Amino acid sequence: xxxxxxxxxxxxxxxxxxxYGSLFSGSSQNKLNQAVSKSLESxxxxxxxxxxxxxxxxxxxxxxxxxxxxxxxxxxxxxGCIQIDESLLKADNGETETSSSMEDENPKPKxxxxxxxxLNSNNDLYKEIRDESITVLMKKLNEKARKLxxxxxxxNKSSEVSQLKQFVKQIPQMQETMKSLSNHINITQRLSRTTxxxxxxxxxxxxxxxxxxxxKLDYIEECIAKQEPW
Length: 230
Hints:
Helix content is 48%, strand content 7%. The protein has helices spanning 26-39, 67-74, 124-129, 134-157, 161-195, 198-211, 217-226; strands spanning 18-20, 47-49, 81-85, 114-118. The strands form two sheets. The protein has a two-stranded parallel sheet with strand order 1-2. Helix 2 crosses helix 5 (161-195) and helix 4 packs antiparallel against helix 5.
């Protein structure tokens, strides 16, 4: 075993500018090289961080509350894409799910047809909110929606030709922003139906209690009896 810095990472992209890590056997290094080589054909990596799991056993077992992590846990991200109900992507009509639907933890889907929805940092809004906690995300999305509405109201009241011309130039971008905003509001509401449910909150509170030193054996035994998923 040796440090990552001493390894010759023969990968199909330029060397990383910074490398950190320790205690990787030769077989582990070979497996890492093969996996990355298959997944990437070209490009560059700025920083590569490899952390031995022995450094932190607990974190992967805890329930994450960030937007992207919840999407992956509750919907499933595959190759930067999710498959979701078509009804959630009705942004062109300005539709969002009603707040009453959030009361049902396991609602019936409005549409059985699944459509792909890409999640990556090419979308400025997703890049900004992907690491936000679900507890504050809806408030931030609503604030953005209000700001866009205020801009449109100001333009409607304006009589200056210069301002109207400037607004016309921004229409395509604003429409794209509104579409993205509406989509992410709908997805957030879909996630919130689960995160606000009794089962999810009980699990999260139990995890917090265990991290703070409580045993919570009764809760664990109850989950085992119910054959709750891992």
